[in-house]
Amino acid sequence: MTSAKLAVPPTGAASPARRSSRSTHARSPSGWMSFRWIATSFIVLIWFVYYPIIDNFVVSTTSQDIYTSEVSYVGLANYARLLEDPVVWHSLWNNVLYAGISIVFQVSGAFVLAAIIEDLTSERLRRFWRAIYFVPSAISITVTGLLFYFIYQPGVGLLDAALHMLGLNALIRPWLGDAHTAIYAIIAMSQWQGFGYSVLLFAVAIQKIPREVYDAARIDGAGPLERLWKLTFPFTREMTGLMTIITVTGAFQVFNEVMVMTAGGPNNSSQVLGTWLYQKAFVEDDFGYGAAIAAVVFAVTMLAGAVQLWYTRRRRVHW
Amino acid sequence: MVRRPWGRLRRPWAVIAQTFVHAFLICLGVVVIYPLIWMALNGFRTNLEIFGTPFALPVSWSWDNYARAWNEGVRNYLTTSVLVTVASALCTILISAWAAFGLARTRMPGKSLFILVVLGGLMLSPTVAVIPLVQMLRDLGLYNTRWALIVLYTAFRVPFTTFLIRAYMVDLPRELDEAATIDGASEDQLFWRILLPLCRPIIISCVILHVLFAWNEYLFAMVFTGGTELATLPVGLTAIMAKHGTNYGEVFAAMTISALPIILVFFAGQRYFVRGLSEGIGK
């Protein structure tokens, strides 16, 4: 008992005078009163997060007339339109591209980079590089998107100037104005912006690996590559799984960078589900169809969530 | 003990490898940082300089572009960004800390159901909710107000913030609660005077993570305050771009002004930020 009391910091010590009167009733046995702690978050979540998402499915079965703004029930007609809309399929493909390329750079690349940084001898250098690479992640995507819009500008941009300096004039093109390169240019910006965040997370995971494991491996003569593959990778598997899920879900919610850099153009070549939803719902006032696109985003992110749940469950059994 | 990462026998090879590693890190660092420096410098340059000599330093260090950007909108957008970020951070932290306390330290019935509701919210994204929210916030009269953003940023960040604070609270020793209860503390006193102060490190991390989110959020900001004087910086920047896009220097100045506060917040809170990430996600 004494030791327990000692653990209480001075700020928390209640006055002795109240001790006798309240000690038995301090916490009701049933705990119903404790609901007040979660009441606010519960109401806010149900009202502004859960209800709208359920309502989205209701909206997706309706159609609103632009002129009379009359809402009518159309069943699954919006979903049928989805299947026949080539832009939806192209957007979905762009989202998949986004996810795939991000896994290469922001998961695999960031993992290797984090391992390299954490292998540096000087703690100051390690902190320095982690911070430097993170800076773009702290800045809003609007700023980095606009910045790269200028960097990609034909004729005047930094990229063309750099290519010119290197004598690679043949590569110069209107990166965002060309239907073949627009989405890749946007994805490239996104890698530049986001990889530092992943590096930081992987670095944190690597720091949690006990040092002795590495010392033992070194004594056994394991080289750096062997240590990376046989120690660092298995020990950070959980983080790798988490990062993959975060990256994939993020890739299917992409909106900001595309909106700022091309708004889906040229000729819809860089549309993603998010921007196509915006175009349909908020530019063309077709809420029902927009909601159907949102339902696709919901399905994909839920699938990723389910995989994540399954992944962590499985790990717990094996641990 | 001296850390000797590459072993004694492979010395010459190790030196080459180390040099290569450092060269690589420096090159990558330049690729990451140079565009940002370019952005800030272009705020001092005229169109002619930006077009003609992309890599050169400004001819004169005149603050004209920065002043013009500030007066032609950035001041308003910055005010909204600050208000929305601060207000939603306060609401989010308070609501999440309450919830975390309820879930981690009380004998509330049906706890697992509530944990499911809170954590399930982690998977739900703004994109999916945005269309119904437009109609809902119109009915509530919050459309085109700062309140819309404060409410939504709070609602969508409560799950993640609760998750982080709960994980931290669960690990605080149980004896604290027992001792406090024996001393006659009520649940309220236990929360406000003991657990909340002890959660300070994780709360600071949560504030930084929330600020990064709220300062940079775009979809809600664009849908609910787009095209008004009440837009936040990310949306306001696109408005400036549309209005003054021909004066490149001014746009670069506006971008630099909106990036600077968040970079400063990150560097000031870097230690807490990393710790928060490691405590929250490492579980």
The total count of strands of chain A amounts to 2
Number of helices of chain A: 15
Return Rg of chain A in Å: 26 Å
Oligomer: heterodimer
Overall shape of chain A: globular
Number of helices of chain B: 12
**Low-pLDDT residue spans of chain A:** 1-29
Overall SS class of chain B: mainly alpha
Share of helix of chain A, binned: 55-70%
For the sheet with most strands of chain A, the description reads: 2 strands, antiparallel
The overall strand count of chain B is 0
CA-based shape of chain B: globular
Any overview of this molecule?
The complex is a heterodimer of chains A (319) and B (283). The model of chain A is unreliable at 1-29 (pLDDT under 50). The longest helix of chain A has 33 residues, at 86-118. Chain A has 15 helices and two strands. Chain A has 319 residues and is mainly alpha-helical. In chain A, strand 1 and strand 2 (71-73) form a beta hairpin. Helix content of chain A is 70%, strand content 2%. The radius of gyration of chain A is 26 Å and the shape is globular. A two-stranded antiparallel ribbon of chain A has the order 1-2. Chain A has helices at 2-6, 19-22, 35-59, 77-84, 86-118, 123-138, 141-152, 158-165, 182-207, 211-219, 224-235, 237-252, 256-261, 273-283, 287-318; strands at residues 62-64, 71-73. Chain B has 283 residues and is mostly helical. Helix content of chain B is 77%, strand content 0%. The longest helix of chain B is centred in the N-terminal third of the chain and has 42 residues, at 64-105. In chain B, 47% of the residues are buried. The model of chain B has no long low-confidence stretch (mean pLDDT 86). At the A-B interface, helix 1, helix 2, helix 3, helix 5 and helix 6 of A face helix 1, helix 3, helix 4, helix 5 and helix 6 of B.
